[in-house]
Amino acid sequence: QVQLIESGGGLVQAGGSLRLSCAASGRTFSSYTMGWFRQAPGKEREFVAAISWSGGIYSTDSVKGRFTISRDNAKNTVYLQMNSLKPEDTAVYYCAAGRLLSYSEIRLLSKYGDWGQGTQVTVSS
User: Fold this and answer.
1) How far apart are CA 66 and CA 81, in angstroms?
2) What pLDDT is attached to residue 46?
3) 123 contacts 85 by C-beta, under 8 angstroms
4) Average pLDDT of each block of 10 consecutive residues along the chain (125 residues)?
5) What is the pLDDT of residue 3?
6) CA 95, CA 50: separation in Å to the nearest integer?
7) CA–CA separation, 83 vs 99, rounded Å?
8) Is residue 21 within a helix (H) or strand (E), and if so which, with residue range?
9) Rounded CA gap, 71 and 99, in Å?
10) Closest alpha carbon to 83 in 67, 60, 63
11) Which secondary structure element, helix H or strand E, spans residue 92, and what is its range?
């Protein structure tokens, strides 16, 4: 089990950038697949991006070319760099950790066992 704490959310104008960070506790961080999900008001939580223990990167089509996920295992931290933000990116962003996820599972919310408390990202038009 890992504990996750997100930071870096805020209010930004359309076209701007933010970098989210997720700090994890535990000595086995490097063995986890780390994911970012988001939930907009009135909508279900959805997959944004993930990075596997081996560095494989996956993202949803709507953020490709704009968002970049990365991890620093020495710092037990995963990042989400968000550029060219749009009003439709407004949501609470959650960091999540999952173990032994297959390629077919990596986008599935239910496969992640540990979650952070979320950080609000608001993009104004």
Assistant:
1) 8
2) 98
3) yes
4) 95 98 90 96 97 94 98 96 98 96 94 97 97
5) 95
6) 9
7) 28
8) strand 18-24
9) 15
10) 67
11) strand 91-99
The pLDDT, as a whole number, for residue 88 is 97
Amino acid found at 125: S
pLDDT for the residue numbered 28: 87
CA distance 25 to 35: 15
Distance CA 103, CA 123 (A): 31
pLDDT confidence of residue 100:
84
Secondary structure (DSSP) of 50-71: EE-TT--EEE-GGGTTTEEEEE
Closest by CA position to 98, among listed 7, 28, 45: 28
Closest-CA residue to 108 (of 47, 19, 32)? 47
pLDDT for the residue 123: 98
